[in-house]
User: Fold these one by one.
Assistant:
Number 1:
Amino acid sequence: MARVFAIANQKGGVGKTTTCVNLAASLVATRRRVLLIDLDPQGNATTGSGVDKLNLEHSVYDVLIGECSLVDAMQFSEHGGYQLLPANRDLTAAEVALLNLPAKEKRLREALAPVRENYDYILIDCPPSLSMLTVNALAASDGVIIPMQCEYYALEGLTDLVNSIQRIANALNPELRIEGLLRTMYDPRSSLTNEVSAQLKEHFADRLYDTVIPRNVRLAEAPSHGMPALEYDKQSKGAQAYLALAGELSRRQRRATRATA
Ligand code: ADP
Ligand code: MG
């Protein structure tokens, strides 16, 4: 049964999409079966997976409004090795379209139910807002992975985000937990980075991933070639960092399974 993780942060440009695409590819490289869901109307995870967002027969939008099944809209990412549920600008209409549908917060959860057993991990790339789309992602997930940059205002935004997640969890999905905080675009030479890092460690303890993602130009270049960094430049620091993250995720998973066994 797949573990479902929403990759969320209401701030834009913190590395949500980069994390989705590269973590998905890294989990595939460690022989996991992965489905990546693009839930952002910008469709960056779709493009970054090598799928043309302007020529989609079906997208996640059709799945949410019940126009087609998830399997009909899914496409295989050649370079990533995972299945992708793509998105494009059509998804901006979802906010309004969902209002008139029953169980509007649980549309994605219901769509995922029949395919969960086919995957080890399902990752959901969220838009940079706490919209109905993000609510759908959180209602469908077991955990939230929060990518963040270690900058001055990061902690402030983080408190708001954690509170919002808690509220949504209480209302819709009591099982939902913060799976982990991921430090992205990390620069160990900056004293501010180290200060914020220490505070994160204090507040979030073992929910802060040990793995950090360095600022790496290969990670920024790879999407324009429609591939994860692992395919674009396997030896790059960025690709290797996401491989390490996939390893850390799996180790935590095994520990959690042992603890409940
Ligand atoms: P979000 O999905 O949160 O808006 P993105 O993943 O799209 O953020 O990242 C924002 C920008 O920063 C993109 O241009 C991306 O290529 C770049 N980027 C993300 N992570 C890194 C990194 N570790 N090193 C260098 N550039 C990065
Ligand atoms: Mg994004």
Number 2:
Amino acid sequence: EDQRSLYRQRIKQRLQERDAVLVAHYYTDPEIQALAEETGGCVADSLEMARFGRDHPASTLIVEGVRFMGETAKILSPEKRVFMPTLEATCSLDIGCPEDDFAAFCDQHPDRTVVVYANTSAAVKARADWVVTSSIAVELIEHLDQRGEKILWAPDKHLGSYVRDKTGADVLCWDGACIVHEEFKAQGLLDLKAAHPGAAVLVHPESPASVVEIADVVGSTSQLIKAATEMDNDTFIVATDKGIFYKMQQLAPNKTFVEAPTGGSGAQCRSCAHCPWMAMNGLENTLAVLEDDNGCGQEIFVDPTLAEQAMKPLDRMLDFGA
Ligand code: 13P
Ligand code: SF4
């Protein structure tokens, strides 16, 4: 514990010396979220992280999250230095959507408006007409559908089919999934709901349709947190990464939050409701990056041509979500 508090002290000092700020996602470990809060950084969903990073006056951003969040921050603020505790923190959606295959898919469907989830590489974003996060996905697709546009959606098939069901739009989906949300199981959730009759069920739309169907509220991380604070229920069953419990518990200390069941345990369970890449963000590697002027090689660089192309759909996302 002494060691951890020394890390925290030193991180605070180095953030000041380097004119840097922490930008953390709700899925990172509680001590990272707490540190971001204490030091004037943000803890947020992926849309809010993008906006915070762009608007904050600090010259250096330390992105506590996964790679696409660091890349998005860099694209929106090319003049800032952007570091991550480790560049190895990726995302199964990003991995599952390689740029060449994606470009070929787009080429096969030139009549469709290309909408990609924020959880993609800069190269995939560069090919898109729109970038979205889960907090604005339904509204945006509704808007495009009303304009008569047909959609090519990538990479998350569960979010894609949720959006299609909600809007009735013509949505052609890429076949990708999040390894964390994919593990939630409908039967286990129904059993747990039966054991907690007064509980509200909160589900992130990266979960399978059978799980989404059981939800009282479906939404992005910040929308689920809002529901947890505003709804009258005493108990909530939550189907998303367990990192989110930190903020829910903080904002609603008298309520009970229960983890939704995943497919297996131990070796059977690849993620167990905690993203293995989000979990790579720790005090030690955050400090290491801040101690070294070159950030131990964990600085984000995005090819300027790609960045320029990716900026357009990202700007549209931020304007639409404003
Ligand atoms: P949101 O924070 O936008 O809901 O995204 C969830 C996610 O999977 C980020 O990894
Ligand atoms: Fe990607 Fe899923 Fe991890 Fe989010 S939780 S970063 S979508 S693998």
Number 3:
Amino acid sequence: MKIEKIQVLRGPNIWSIRRKKLIQMRLDLEEMEHLPTNKIPGFRERLEALIPSLITHRCSEGVEGGFFHRVEMGTWMGHVIEHIALEIQTLAGMDTGFGRTRETKTPGIYNVVFSYIEENCGVYTAEQSVEIARCIADGKEYNLEACIQKLKEIRERERLGPSTGSIVEEAVARNIPWIRLGKNSLVQLGYGVNQQRFQATITGKTSSIAVDIACNKELTKKMLDDAAIPVPTGDLVVDEEDLERVVRRIGYPIVLKPLDGNHGRGQTINVNDWETAKIGLQHAQTVSRRVIVERYITGFDFRVLVINHKMVAAARRVPAHVVGDGEMNIQQLIDKENLDPRRGYGHENVLTEILIDKDTNELLHKLNYTLETVPLKGEMVYLKSTANLSTGGTSIDVTDMVHPENVTMCERISKIIGLDVCGIDIMAENLTQPLKESGGAILEVNAAPGFRMHLAPSEGLPRNVAAPVVDMLYPHGKPTRIPIIAVTGTNGKTTTTRLIAHIVKNNGFRVGFTTSDGIYIQNTMLTKGDTTGPISAEFILKDPTVEFAVLETARGGILRSGLGFSYCDIGVLTNIKEDHLGLSDIHNLKDLTRVKRVVLDSVKKDGWSVMNADDEFSMRLLPDIDSKVAIFSLDENNAHIRKFAKEGKITCVYEEGFITIKKGEWKIRIAKAMNIPITMEAKAKFMISNVLAASLATYLYGFEIEDIANSLRTFMPSAQLTPGRLNVFKFKNFKVLIDFAHNPAGYEAIEDYLKNVESSKKIGIIAGVGDRRDEDIFECGKIAGRMFDHIIIRNEKHLRGRTEEEINSLIISGIQDSGRNVTYEIIPKEIEALKHAMSMAEEGTFITALSDVVSNAIDLVQEYQNKEILEEGK
Ligand code: ATP
Ligand code: ATP
Ligand code: MG
Ligand code: MG
């Protein structure tokens, strides 16, 4: 067996619209192609011995053990690998559960598809599942435990922390989209101008000055003290003289802690005599010169969480500890504690396992204990100096027990410090009495407080503290998304996208759009290149200035990693024609339909799919579309249009020279095609088609007819604005057309246009694209033979796996098959071919260059135009 390719899908894809996170592994079964599982002696037994939990997989049989039964009866290795992949992820704490295995059109080569939770875990799982299957088949050992541990490690490294994760989960539950920015925990919620950001529990609204105040413990204490909120009395000291003075004033017991400390570093607690106080000062000064000396408050550690100035949760925190039973030593007690199933690896469970570290050893040392010491029955031995959950601490929810006066005080504190998400540490005997009565005090105020102790306390009620964060970022009724129109199809995507974007922009929106030429915001191109995949879509959706997205969405990106958005408002399918067949397991128009329909399947239920009634394969999709559908046609008598009109539905047609919206049988005329420059005086039918698509999509979005009409009239095709889309250059005696047509449908579109062009002679410059099917290259030659009088065959820059001779002979046989007496010649370089064509032009010649590197061709023609103007001037 050999893995040919592992792809990570991240958005709606050909396998599933809802299951966005899938691994697609292309697997060559090689020798295994002839060895189903029942032909490998002992396979089932070894599989069951290695992964007994596969018993839960029902597979197609629908009963427990169903999968094992299939293995016994004989199934192919791809299918086995899919189940192994799902199960090892489950064993590593990532329960997913979606899988598909399909043979491709190449015998022995399969696509094994399964869902993942963390991307890199998915990739590792793919590799290991094949390895596991191979070992089982060969009767070799495989260390499953090591594989699961490795998966857990990758998971902990990759996944969002518990606080960030909880907010993302809450957003997803509310259907708010999210994008992880970078590798850490910075997350964008929402799209474009409606986005909000957060990182752990710092939000885009968290005030920087508030964080500064909270980080300065002394300043925080002073501000709270000034506001009559109880804090431990004390002062800052830098030497023993200071210390003595403070001790005289506040008396014992005291606490010494470094001013800039955290996690309890350098801190000495419950000091009752001068000698210990002096040592405590030295200890604290190893961390910072300035040291806080304050009264030791007795009681328990509490954490109160205030979000958007409302208390949402309170917890009592207990550092990791063990309780003696009079028999076991400390090490044994820790081992026993770690057996608690709630304690897991990293953040996988409610609690974290207790690891023995320097802090633990120091604490034990202070008690004159070692790990071998046997504590008394009922004796509590602390193993950590702080109550953080990540070091094995536990928490008890006490939210409902907080005295109203304390609630008011905590909410006031959050305002005094100015923190939108505020964690207040309180030392007190309890929170059920007002602090002033219990003698408790505020120890510090934390910015970015962790949520895990409230989300999953070890005792008491779990609290959804992520919900108030999302409430704050998105109060009721505040939009989270921006409108998305996605455009797909074989031909006309870029033109339609640009037209729609132009209309949207003229309606006052700041539009971001992606095309196969580049990414644009308003009129500015931000990156150049084929930007029709998910990363480009995300570029637009991440931009905080964009109010409306129009996304050209091509085949390549969908197949590579799925869509870059989970759903769109309007999906436009221009047509499904022969192109790119024979690539990526797409062999015919039916396969291609499966790819293009992903865009329409991603349209929201109450959104619109805009489809071409003149296109057979598009119309075959009609019964499968879940959203509302509107169709367009060049012919108002098209059967589908007539049916739609009869049913009172919305359509868009070309009739009597007008672009017209129909609501049922009622007609609303938008504009005359003659007056829409991109239609080349209504001569280019395919451009009219694109105008119909764009008009219909924008009408359905809700733009006014007059506004659409104005925009259509002001969209000027030009070599700058729409390079390679029917750019006509006029010379004194002849004309040159530069166009990007590169497949039979594109050639036919040009043929149709040329019928309306008057000329004495038509010269064409064409080329075959190397990675297309024989019949497609032949067909292009044939259409060229029909529409030109003389043909110059050139070669593409990239031959994509064929020789020039091969491609050219296919084209030539196409030309000959056209049945017309056409002359042809071969000039490999595009620029040379174009120069030659212009040199042989006579009065009334019309040259059509179906170009590869459009910008070079345009530069050359414009240079010739300038030369002509200069010569005229002489
Ligand atoms: P962390 O980063 O874990 O919050 P820190 O270094 O910021 O720790 P503090 O929060 O000030 O330090 O104190 C840590 C722990 O030490 C407190 O939770 C409390 O248990 C104890 N402590 C600190 N100051 C006092 C005090 N004045 N009286 C009693 N206990 C105290
Ligand atoms: P690509 O897949 O290369 O990005 P595209 O779908 O974005 O192509 P456009 O760039 O709009 O298509 O147009 C490319 C060429 O395809 C045009 O210059 C024209 O020759 C042809 N074309 C455009 N629209 C249509 C149409 N509606 N029907 C058939 N051919 C078209
Ligand atoms: Mg603290
Ligand atoms: Mg394009």
